[in-house]
Predict the structure of Prenyltransferase alpha-alpha toroid domain-containing protein.
Amino acid sequence: MNVRRSAAALAASAVLCAGAAPAALAAPATPSPSAPPVVPSGLYGKNDPTYDGVWRQSIALLAQHTVGVKPAKEAVAWLAGQQCANGGFASFRADASAACGEQTVYDTNATAVAVQALKALGGQDAAAKKGADWLKSVQNEDGGWAYVPGSPSEASSTAVVISALAAAGEKPAEVRSKAGKSAYDGLLAFRLPCSAEPATDRGAFAYQPVDGKLLANADATAAATLAALGKGIVVAPAAKDTPAGTECTDGAAPEAAAEAAAGHLAAALKKDGHLTAVAPGADQPAPDTGNTADAVLALVAAGHKQSAAGAVEWLKGNSADWAKGSPAALGTLVLVAHATGTDPKAFGGADLVTALNATGPAPQAAAGSATDEPAKQDDDGGEGSGGQGVWWMIAVGAAAGMGIGILLSGRRKKNQL
């Protein structure tokens, strides 16, 4: 889900250069980096929304709704107002009053998560259906989707779209391209077989082939697990709870692929309690907080909460810097807490709900103390090495000027793990 985007400029350029439609490349759809757009009052977060405005707004609204917070009307109106007449969304439109046209760079990921948010909030069914219909209209012949329509399919975008279609009431197995390929045909094409080497990669999903070879990718695997189960970003606590299996089967059913992918994620988490990734420009792997959160959601969705327990504890103590001031990151942690039955107001000493509410317009209503106006804090506190507790109180402030540099969700990253 998650959740997890690479540095905005790097990610956007990588996706576009990977094969964006000529119309998308012909004219820039965003302002110059030297003059970032003004952050609208209805939008959550204070950093430049050029590459993640719709995404972070949708995650924030989904998280609030999940814990009983009624989002501000202006926040919902902002998201709905970003939709183009054809049903699709760009990553962000500074002037939503202007009609979308040939220069609009559509974003399947933003559209997919917006569909889920609009569907969940209620009263937006028409907009959600319009978005789902647009997603179906830009399906590639192989059954999959690209981040930018017209580009080659990749697993992460295909998975996010499938999750959105399922949340909107569609049956992904029946969503077929003009060539007759189903959405699941498109997704399973990126699955590593059970004969893959090294053995630790078996059951995983690749983002896209690299020189004709599929390489295991954590973001793609977590997203594909949810999609293969026909589930969206909001994961309810599972009725069953068993450890993830270690056997890998090459069955054609999406459920079999989901189980094998969950086994891969569980094994990857077992070593350190979290996933790792090599960031652009680095030569050593570092903890990958966003994909760790996504892996937790995927494992719970597959009925393997036990296999995610260690990662949840790691997130409680190590997600501070990653989530500080970020509505998308905070929202994802709220969804993790919801899925695992953890109190989001006491997540490793953090009140996620209050911190999330503080990043945007005050909600209309909330469950419990979340309706209270959060106290403003001066950003002069320190952070311990574990990042627990104290920074969350700092983050409760207006969060003006705060940016995390790395945007939530590897939906836009291609680091091969």
Q: What stands out?
A: The longest strand covers residues 3-4. The chain is about 40% helix and 0% strand. The first helix runs from residue 8 to 17. Strands lie at 3-4, 276-277, 286-287, 408-409.
